[in-house]
Specification:
Elements: H1 2-63, E1 67-69, E2 74-81, E3 84-97, E4 109-122, E5 126-139, E6 149-151, E7 168-174
Antiparallel strand pairs: 1-6, 2-3, 3-4, 4-5, 5-7
């Protein structure tokens, strides 16, 4: 009789131990899924932040050009590594008179309005499109014929007569995908 009681007690203990192990296994699997999801969210946030930085880098590279084309869009591409790239396009939008706060009575000028579209990508999921508008203040009347290219004068010495002052940003728009 005593052997039967001990074997039934050991059977109960074994059943309890197996139930505890099953519960711990379920908790471990659920916890692993949560950890994997949180890690993925952190990685996505980091990749998106890098995509935004790359898009801003593309805008900076486009604005640092020595001359801008008025007759056709100009594109560029820069890749730190294969999956971390930025592509940008600069295009002339319109020519207007100079806005009121930029007027200078001595020199007739025109405002050449441009738009930069940049797309930063970092990893398979992170993309950051950015659109920036800027204008160049150039010599000449607003309705005068436009050259194919306009050179930027970054120093006051030795600038061509038809050059423009450095770019002035008008707007910045970041689209979230």
């Amino acid at each position: 009789m005593r052997a039967r009681i001990e074997s039934s007690e050991s059977g109960v203990v074994l059943a309890v131990v197996l139930m505890v192990l099953a519960a711990l296994s379920l908790l471990a699997v659920a916890g692993k899924g949560d950890v994997a999801l949180q890690w993925l969210q952190v990685r996505n946030a980091r990749e998106y932040a890098e995509a935004v930085r790359l898009a801003e880098t593309g805008v900076g590279m486009a604005l640092s050009a020595a001359r801008f084309r008025l007759d056709a869009p100009r594109s560029g591409r820069y890749c730190r590594i294969a999956s971390r790239c930025v592509e940008w396009t600069v295009r002339h939008v319109e020519t207007t008179g100079v806005p009121a706060r930029f007027e200078d009575a001595d020199v007739p000028k025109r405002a050449l309005h441009f738009e930069i579209s940049a797309l930063g990508t970092a990893g398979p999921r992170a993309r950051s499109p950015v659109v920036v508008g800027f204008m160049l203040l150039a010599h000449g009347e607003p309705d005068a014929e436009l050259p194919k290219k306009i050179e930027i004068c970054r120093r006051n010495d030795d600038c061509p007569e038809d050059s423009a002052e450095p770019p002035v940003r008008r707007y910045w728009r970041e689209d979230v995908e």
